[in-house]
């Protein structure tokens, strides 16, 4: 059976140094060495054929493809589902290297540095789609250790539920952000419709750049009926909350790729 471990975006830091950025009074003390990402890596399976074409060629100078074999087990428990393999893999990579992990369908809307997240041990919401952490962060080691009791029948037992239990037990080891900091609007049908159904700015829908949130997780598998037909030109002419947000990421090169 083919292995369909999801591709993940992961930023490996360069030389450690404190990043000068403001912190809220409730944030924990900065790490001795802050998170200073220097190069984006996209980790994928060694067996996958390297993507070719105008769009991959446009991205190629800006990313490094890093083939790796996903874990097949954790603490003696077999990992069968691609999502569970990716859950474990991101923790292993962050523990080894530190940096920023983001899901491949996550849009970064504001600077993590300016938000004061780059000098924290671990910064996250109650979800593992975005994690900022230094190398060997204690919280990540605790999180990975919970997989000793891994149950493959529980989809998000360790990626969400266990991590929240740890957050309540060890609050000094991480910064938990507010509900709307990273993933809002959520995955519910009405939320996805609100983001993608055409709407007028400031009247309906959701205005991402006015919300103050840091990222948007696009819930790709649930929103595919809206996402799949999109092209750069449709993004520029679209009137949904999503297209208004994504326009910031579209440049002349994208239109050239579309017409190629």
UniProtKB/TrEMBL annotation:
Belongs to the glycosyltransferase 32 family. Transmembrane segments: none annotated. GO terms for molecular function: transferase activity. PANTHER family: ALPHA-1,4-N-ACETYLGLUCOSAMINYLTRANSFERASE (PTHR46830:SF2), TRANSFERASE, PUTATIVE-RELATED (PTHR46830). Residues 1-47 are annotated as: Disordered. Keywords: Transferase. Pfam families: Gly_transf_sug. SUPFAM superfamilies: Nucleotide-diphospho-sugar transferases. The keyword Transferase applies. It comes from the Eukaryota. The keyword rRNA-binding does not apply. This is Glycosyltransferase family 32 protein.
């Amino acid at each position: 059976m083919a292995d369909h471990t999801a591709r993940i975006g992961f930023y490996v830091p360069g030389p450690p140094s404190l990043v000068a950025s403001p912190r809220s009074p409730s944030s924990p003390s900065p790490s001795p060495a802050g998170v200073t990402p220097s190069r984006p890596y996209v980790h994928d399976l060694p067996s996958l054929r390297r993507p070719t074409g105008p769009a991959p060629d446009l991205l190629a100078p800006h990313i490094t493809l890093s083939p790796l074999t996903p874990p097949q087990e954790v603490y003696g428990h077999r990992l069968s589902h691609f999502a569970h393999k990716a859950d474990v893999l991101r923790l292993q990579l962050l523990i080894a290297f530190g940096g920023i992990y983001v899901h491949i369908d996550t849009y970064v809307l504001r600077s993590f540095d300016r938000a004061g997240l780059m000098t924290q041990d671990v910064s996250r919401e109650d979800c593992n789609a975005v994690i900022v952490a230094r190398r060997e962060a204690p919280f990540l080691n605790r999180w990975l250790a919970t997989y000793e009791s891994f149950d493959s029948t529980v989809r998000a037992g360790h990626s969400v539920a266990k991590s929240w239990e740890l957050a309540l037990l060890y609050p000094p080891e991480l910064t938990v952000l507010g509900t709307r900091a990273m993933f809002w609007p959520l995955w519910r049908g009405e939320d996805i419709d609100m983001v993608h159904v055409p709407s007028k700015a400031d009247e309906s829908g959701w205005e991402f750049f006015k919300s103050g949130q840091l990222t948007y997780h696009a819930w790709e598998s649930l929103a595919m009926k809206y996402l799949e037909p999109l092209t750069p030109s449709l993004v520029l002419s679209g009137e949904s909350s999503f297209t208004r947000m994504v326009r910031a990421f579209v440049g002349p090169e994208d239109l050239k790729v579309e017409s190629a």
